[in-house]
TrEMBL record:
Residues covered by the DUF4232 domain: 115-241
UniProt region (Disordered), positions on chain: 31-112
Ranges of compositional bias, category Low complexity: 34-46, 57-112
Source species: Streptomyces decoyicus
Top-level taxon in the UniProt lineage: Bacteria
Protein name as it appears in the record: DUF4232 domain-containing protein
Length: 247
């Protein structure tokens, strides 16, 4: 083979190699584009607004789950469980502050120790007239078998035999007085007070036949003859009970 032939074959191989290299570079440029070398990798890519919204949604979902876990669970019918019931007394009612045993005992003793209408007698004593005033003792006597107590004002009205009222009930005069303890057979009294006829221009009431009385602290009534007691001057008072009998 001649030298010319060898040189020509070597030139063709070099040219072919150059063409292959140029073709490879062209393919690389088509795939990556002109900015492929300068574009940052996906690992270092910045977080987009869409990614942020997704992240917030995930956090909200997590917060809702935590809130749901913190809230009390609803019952099957959709209602929340009711609050624990208050402690109840043995009778089924909520426990309330009740009086002490000492207070209850004192109240019971006071009620049982009071003089009842059924255990007493009642009478109107002789009148005491002086300086334009008239006073009548209203006497209570313990006819029971045990001691009892009275304290305060009796309720007093005047009535006729047919039961019709005369005037108005007596008003209270003076202080409430001490506790009066009556042994069987002992008496206490309150004073009824009015004015003499002519002392005042206020007309006198009709004459009464009966005195209608509620003993102090009692809801049971008693009656006794009024001996024609007549209220004048519009004045009709009663005092609290005191120990002893007058008239």
């Amino acid at each position: 083979m001649s030298l010319t032939t060898k040189t020509l074959g070597r030139g063709r191989r070099v040219a072919a190699g150059s063409l292959i290299a140029v073709a490879a570079l062209g393919l690389t440029a088509c795939k990556g584009g002109p900015d492929a070398a300068s574009r940052p990798s996906s690992a270092a890519a910045p977080v987009t607004s869409q990614d942020t919204e997704r992240g917030n949604g995930a956090q909200s979902a997590g917060g809702s789950a935590q809130s749901s876990a913190a809230k009390p669970q609803s019952s099957a019918n959709g209602q929340r469980p009711s609050a624990p019931a208050k402690a109840a007394s043995p009778g089924g009612k909520p426990t309330a502050k009740s009086p002490s045993a000492a207070q209850s005992q004192a109240s019971a003793m006071t009620a049982s120790d009071r003089c009842n209408a059924a255990d007493m007698s009642l009478r109107l004593g002789r009148s005491d007239i002086g300086a334009g005033n008239i006073r009548y003792p209203l006497v209570f006597t313990n006819k029971g078998k045990k001691a009892c107590t009275l304290r305060g004002y009796p309720g007093v009205s005047l009535i006729k035999r047919d039961g019709s009222a005369v005037g108005k009930p007596a008003t209270r005069e003076g202080g409430s007085g001490p506790v009066v303890r009556l042994q069987p057979g002992q008496s206490a009294h309150a004073l009824l007070h009015t004015l003499n006829d002519g002392v005042s221009d206020t007309p006198c009431w009709d004459r009464s036949q009966l005195v209608f009385v509620y003993p102090p602290g009692s809801k049971e009534s008693m009656t006794t003859g009024s001996d024609g007691l007549r209220v004048c001057g519009g004045r009709f008072d009663v005092t609290a009970v005191e120990a002893g009998a007058l008239g």
